[in-house]
């Protein structure tokens, strides 16, 4: 028979938290003692009556809620204890041990609890107890995110050679660090072969397959009804796949074919442009707080039907965390559906949407350049909006290969490399 109290120290990572957990354990020690006495008394009564002994004979409902069998244990929640089927907190059932005439644990128990919490506290989050050398979560050594506009991004353009990124961990760390800080990073000198983009992704993550396949070709297609990206028409600022419940965090585009802008007579079009959505959201919050509130609190539907498949998801344009910080954007005129709401909601929404869009399209907000063969650009699809100027497919050769990846894998690799090189 095992008695177990799940302490709030499951998540304790400092002596101060451990001290609070010890006080909690002392407060509920009486409950465990009562449970033992009840079982002992019931066992003696059964023995006197001739009933066979069985450790499960006393129903759980007659025991304090902190006396559990191993198979009753549930996944603990932060700041609470693990309970059987009744969803109650121990504090609502068990009072101060001394209030009922009981004694608090002696010094030996207190020392044992102190040592155990400091040594094994992290083990409560694992399937089994481990030693004091068990790996525990550490604070990621990430750089600060840097918001940018056209001037600041050009002053410190985030680029690295393909060879350095692929052949050394220090190079990969540097490239991922740029990607994390700016939401965009460029590789130069990537071999112009279609499969090279997946090799780059697999250096730090996994390819995220979508309805477009593992990779897709961004090239002019002559068939009727072709996706807008597969034409020579302009592509306005947007983020990709907003109509999915889990939008990919990373998009990559590898240039295989393009006209050399240095050899062209004037602007032939087909230039790529990018904008930092986090910076524009910050501008909106500081200058138009009411509009910022509208875009963070109004859900809008994104929908598409593509090659016989239909996708739909509902998001605010600006998604925030519990602290009110913007952590994700969803913006695409081509798949965002008309807002279905009352007039008093619709008018403020489109007013706020226009304010955001005007700032987004301001040339001072944008990084614009021509991709040349061998360039590969990766960007945070939850932060950086991208687009393309129009071009004439009969005069301009342009072929990009694209794919997606999830942010979790990239951040995991980034964190491990930051820890390896002990740099920030």
Topology:
Blueprint: H1 15-27, H2 29-48, H3 107-120, H4 150-155, E1 159-161, H5 162-167, H6 169-182, E2 184-188, H7 196-201, E3 207-208, E4 216-219, E5 235-238, E6 250-258, E7 272-276, H8 277-287, H9 289-297, E8 300-306, E9 309-315, E10 318-320, E11 326-329, H10 343-361, E12 366-369, E13 376-380, E14 384-388, E15 398-405, H11 407-421
Helix pairs in contact: 1-3, 6-11, 8-9, 8-10, 9-10
Provide the descriptors you would attach to this structure in a database record.
4-stranded antiparallel sheet; alpha+beta
Description:
There is one protein chain. With 424 residues, the chain is α+β, with helices and mostly antiparallel strands. The chain is 31% helix and 18% strand. The protein has eleven helices and 15 strands. The strands form four sheets. Strands 1, 2, 3, 4, 6, 13 and 15 form a seven-stranded mixed sheet that branches. The longest helix has 20 residues, at 29-48. It is globular.
What fraction, in percent, of the residue positions are helical?
25-40%
Estimated structural class: alpha+beta
Strand residue content: 15-25%
DSSP summary: helix tally = 11
- Average residue pLDDT: 79
Largest sheet: number of strands, sense, barrel closure: 7 strands, mixed
Low-confidence stretches: 1-18, 52-102
């Amino acid at each position: 028979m095992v008695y177990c109290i799940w302490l709030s120290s499951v998540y304790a990572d400092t002596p101060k938290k451990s001290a609070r957990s010890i006080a909690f354990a002392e407060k509920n020690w009486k409950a465990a003692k009562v449970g033992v006495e009840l079982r002992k008394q019931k066992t003696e009564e059964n023995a006197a009556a001739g009933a066979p002994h069985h450790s499960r004979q006393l129903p759980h409902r007659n025991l304090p809620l902190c006396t559990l069998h191993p198979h009753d244990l549930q996944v603990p929640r932060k700041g609470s204890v693990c309970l059987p089927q009744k969803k109650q907190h121990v504090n609502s059932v068990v009072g101060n041990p001394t209030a009922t005439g009981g004694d608090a644990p002696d010094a030996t128990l207190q020392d044992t609890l102190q040592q155990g919490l400091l040594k094994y506290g992290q083990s409560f989050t694992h399937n089994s107890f481990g030693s004091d050398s068990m790996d525990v979560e550490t604070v990621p050594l990430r750089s600060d995110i840097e918001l940018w506009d056209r001037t600041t991004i050009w002053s410190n353009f985030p680029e690295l050679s393909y060879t350095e990124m692929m052949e050394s961990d220090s190079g990969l760390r540097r490239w991922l660090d740029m990607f994390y800080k700016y939401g965009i990073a460029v590789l130069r000198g990537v071999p112009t072969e279609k499969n090279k983009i997946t090799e780059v992704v697999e250096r730090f993550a996994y390819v995220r397959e979508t309805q477009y396949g593992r990779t897709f070709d961004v090239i002019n297609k002559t068939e009727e009804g072709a996706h807008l990206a597969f034409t020579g028409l302009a592509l306005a600022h947007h983020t990709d796949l907003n109509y999915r419940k889990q939008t990919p965090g990373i998009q990559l585009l590898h240039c295989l074919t393009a006209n050399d802008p240095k050899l062209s007579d004037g602007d032939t079009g087909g230039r790529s442009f990018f904008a930092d959505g986090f910076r524009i959201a910050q501008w909106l919050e500081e200058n138009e707080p009411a509009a910022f509130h509208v875009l963070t609190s109004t859900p809008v539907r994104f929908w598409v039907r593509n090659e016989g498949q239909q996708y739909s998801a509902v998001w605010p344009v600006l998604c925030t965390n519990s602290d009110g910080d913007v952590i994700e954007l969803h913006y695409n005129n081509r798949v965002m559906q008309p807002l279905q709401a009352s007039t008093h909601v619709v008018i403020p929404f489109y007013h706020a949407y226009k304010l955001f869009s005007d700032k987004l399209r301001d040339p001072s907000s944008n990084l614009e350049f021509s991709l040349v063969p061998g360039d590969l650009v990766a960007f945070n699809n939850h932060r950086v909006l991208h687009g393309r100027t129009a071009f004439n497919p009969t005069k301009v050769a342009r072929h990009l290969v694209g794919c997606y990846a999830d942010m979790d894998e990239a951040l995991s690799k980034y964190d491990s490399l930051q820890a390896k090189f002990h740099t920030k």
